[in-house]
Structures
1.
Amino acid sequence: MNINLTLFSQAVAFAIFIWFTVKFVWPPLLRAIEQRQQQIADGLAAAERARSDLANAEKKAVDELRQAREAAADMRSNADRQAAQLLEEARAEGARIVARAREAAEQEAAVAAQRAKETLREQVAQLAVSGAERILRREVNAQVHAQLLTDLKQELR
Amino acid sequence: MAEAQELTTTQYISHHLTNMTKQVGEGSFMTLHVDSLIMAVIMGLVGIGFIWWIARGATSGVPTKRQAFVELVFDFVDEQAKGMFHGDRHKFIAPAAFTVFVWVLLMNATSFLPVDLMAWVYEHVFHLHNWRSVPTADVNTTFALGLSVWLLMIYFSIAVKGFGGWIHELTCTPFGVKPLWASPILLVFNLLFNLIELVSKPLSHSLRLYGNIYAGEIIFLLLGMWAATGLVGTAASAVLTAGWAIFHILIVPLQAFIFMMLTVVYLSMAHESH
């Protein structure tokens, strides 16, 4: 155990090694490690952000789906209502047409009946006149009795 | 060992514990332990160089296994520095602690080299007589480290607190200088306390490392010597050497860790004022 110049030589070596480490070894390692820490922190933050984005998107998708379903239901009920209305209108229209047709037919029938009655009345009058002619067997002044016949025709109406 | 049969026990052990010296001037102080110096520098170059090589190609992306390993060591040291030093540790303290840890760890780790085999290799391959593998089993190395840290500690004390502040700390703590009538006595006691602390720091710092590694080396030598007693002794020696080496795996990083921790503690204390 003798102290000698080795002490100084080793101290110099020590000083050089420390200087070298401080200058060239420590900084690049520190930089690499700190950068990686930053990257990992960024990555974690990004993952967190992505997760919340996903949650938002899912919520939005559910909302959209619900809206679409509601819109579809609306549309269907509208269509039903419209169909019912159309049916109703068609039915009313049909009823109207039938009624109008019936009315027209009734009128026509009434007119026809009237005409038939008129014709019948003329014929009855003529029959009556000719019958009376035959009964009386004598000349009947048609002009004298025309008034009488007209009155008779009026009565038959 | 070429001349093992001619050696006594004492000669064997002292042969292994003799440094290769080189006289560079007058007096016993002006000698160099060439083996300690060269082994230490090789270990430093290997350790710091390897880490430098990794640091140059360090990526902030996915690290290679090599880089991950270096980062583990980095983080380990950085955590210790972070826990004790409250300031910009990246400027000096953490890299200095890193250097200490890596270098001392590797210097201690040379004690895993089998003593007699390496002695043969040094003798016959490199033609080096008396070449010791373990720089930290040389008190010069540990004192060089310990005193360097001690000087850094004093430097930082003065740089942070000013010369006056440092002197004030030496003389006015831990007992204070009040009341006024007692202040001369308190001053003396304070100074005495602080001087003892100041002197004991580098001593305990250096000698703890030296003692542990030196003792470990001696145990290896004693176990190695057993092999000279015959076949049974050789077998027992092999088993016990393996056992001691396994135990030594604990001691080597532990001592490196303690040395690094004390370095951080001393340098952190220098930055703090009472």
2.
Amino acid sequence: MAAVNQSDVLILGGGMMGAATAFFLRQRGVSVTLLERGLCGQQASGVNFGNVRRQGRFLPQLPLANRSRLLWSRLPELLGEDVEFLPTGHLRVAYRPEHLAMMEEYRDGSRNYGLELEIIGGNAARDRYPWLSQEVLGGSFSVEDGHANPRLVAPAFARAAKRDGARIVENCDVVAIECEATGFRLESAGGEVWRAPVLQVSAGAWGGRIAASFGEAVPIIARGPQMGVTEPVPYALHPVLGVTTKTVGEVVYLRQVTRGNIVFGGTGHGPADLDTRRAKVMPEITLQQFSQLRRMVPAIGALRIIRTWSGVEGYLRDDRPVMGPSGKVSGLFYAFGFCGHGFQLGPGVGEVMAELIATGSTTTPLAPFHIGRFA
Amino acid sequence: MAAPRVIVVGAGPAGTRAAEVLVAAGLRPVVIDEAADNGGQIYRRQPAGFRRRAEELYGTEAGRARAVHGAFSALRGRIEHWPQSLAWQLRDGTLQVERGGRAHRLDFDRIILATGATDRLLPIPGWTVPGTFSLGAAQIALKAQACAIGRRVIFLGSGPLLYLVAAQYVKAGAQVAAVLDTAPAAARRAALPLMAVRPSLLIKGAALLWRLKRAGVPVHHGVAPLRIEGDSRVSGLVFRDAAGREQRLEGDAVGMGWHLRAESQLADLAGCTFAFDEVSRQWLPRIDADGRSSVDGVYLAGDGVRLAGADAAELGGKLAARAVLQDLGLPPPAGIDAEQLRRSLARMERFRQGLAVAFPWPGDIIAKLSDDTLVCRCEAITAGTLRRSATALEAPEMNRAKAFTRVGMGRCQGRFCGIAGAEILAAARGEPMQAAGRIRSAAPVKPLAVAIEVETP
Amino acid sequence: MMGGAGPLLQRLDELVRPSVTLAVDGQVVTALEGDTVLTAVLLHGAALRQSEFGDGPRAGFCLMGACQDCWVWTEQGTRLRACSTPVTAGLRIVTREVPWPRLG
């Protein structure tokens, strides 16, 4: 029995990061077992906005984001199924001159990382997108960014990994993690045992507890994104939309799917509970989002929302994920806490972690995300 | 100390009786309802300017309807009535309400949810073709608009409402092509011992059948509906009769329904525990004998939790209000014999069990629906897509299937596809229906305008 | 008459009420006070809207505000749930197109 549950790598957590890592490890021929407490992609990976956005990211994260962006275009071929990725472009608007100046500064910085952004004035933006409001002073357009369906991606990675020989174990609640001479020993609530010389923790908001058990506590809190969606209307808002601002109450982001619904979020987060695995949608936030949606695209004021949702996301104090090798335990790797902006990175994280685990190094710089920064 | 704030959601029979008990105890409850007037769906009032008498609208239930309307009228000035108001979210002692285009936040000490029910539906090919309505819709068209849903109407489904609506159509002068009951004739005989607890209802049922027979309306038992025909409007319905023969009926409208489905979204949002009810083959909030849910301060009454009909709803409303008063430490209301109410409800519960035997939910028909049958009306999701999510995508239950396929993800939030969807999913996985779970509710309970006005603090 | 154009609903009673005029797809339609928008439109035609997903016309289903099948558009680009909205004079309903997004 113990022999059956032995693999080269154990992955704890079947969100997008874990599932993508499992998939890319199989591409490299590494044997891998993924243990997921519920079903793959049920939490942050499945409930997020679905933004495949690079602009606006922390600049040293762009090499990872760029690598991931290349993979997004290849997902149908890699996974064998469509995850509704559309490279529609991503437009961030500004309502005030100082925010336009921030955009220009960001554009100058991102150029060094190979991300070309186009700054356009308010009238030019309205010529292109006549549904934008008069209040829009200008915008920054990232032509190759876009969006995808978050409900599909992590499960698709898990299925593809399984097809390629990974062992995916869902509904597996791991209750004990131990270091042994030969590696790691994980035990489930059902009493089953798994062993591997390498362990990757990609347990999202729950990753902090596991890291702490290895003596590597991180300042992580759980919060819930505040998402909603309108009824379907003719497909008109092609680019993903967002706002550049320093006021959190002005932050709104939205995208229209080709079926017609407009998915949105922003203006704040709600509480999330690691024990119940539930996050709340705050009605006050939903109502606040309405005014910001109308502010950017007045025509949305004619519509109704039909659903809201949230989920559990992990946020680090410095708004950067924990990614890379452990600072203390050999064979231990982390990829968790993506602070609400991990969706775009997911495929890249999987490929980079697989590269790191299989070869001992990666060509993509990960230093800013090392867990040691909190030590 | 300020008087406790009690909210009643729903102004049908359950909500009306609950409010009445609260008012008698000296409270001033807020009564919220989506309709312009009270009565709920069953005792829905016709618009101002309509002149038909209660007997024409409610038939044998005219007395009941008058009593409930009268009770509500007597409360005016002593309750805060919020008509045309949508309670769209409920959690942690706060109800979110949209009224007149404005957002309101109502904090409460206790809340009674008397949210009623809709028809329970199963999909059949063609059920989105104009001219196809629910049985409840066919009745509302008649009751509230003095219209028939077509010139030659086919009624399909099972349960007492099927015969009631068909008979009401006959009485109102509409042409009824046929009544198609999916329940086999033998089922009713098997149910007689249970249903004998309410002999008056059995007699009413026999009278309905007699009226249909006298009008020459063909009644078929044990049918399997195959498809509704027509492109831009209904032209007919094809079914397989009890002898296995395929038959086609000409008609320009179909009214269809299989008993009721509880409107339990607010209870779900409040965090109430649900349990699978074998009798109605659906998930219902759990309550104690008086209507206390698993969540402190949240009480349930009427068809939103018991599915035992309007009479039972009145009793449940009284019991829930009594429980509220008791839990608030207020003196028990005069003239309410809780023990007797519970006994009456227990009798009605036996009758409900009898109805479920007499007019069973045809899960087998749903499991066999062709792959191209549109299951989710809102999102246009087919049975085949749902089945594929159960097999190729390994969705074990409805929420996972919803995430993968968008079934139940549309405007109605799975009200009209959730139960049938669970049957299809479970059948595809070779499991009992309850293994497919239920679609979790999400706010807003119904579509909410982005243009809603919000008070700025 | 089966199939073709013409009304879906049939009025049986309550014929003596003041009339109200509205427009459906540009055509003047007369309804009676107390009619819902759904009744008014379906007494003259057989559709309230087109399904967004290409599966044909829709004409409501539950009539009790639950199924959300009967949301119609006005020419002005506003939305009405036809089964639960009383008809008012001057309404201009469109069943064939969706006037969204409206600009300006």
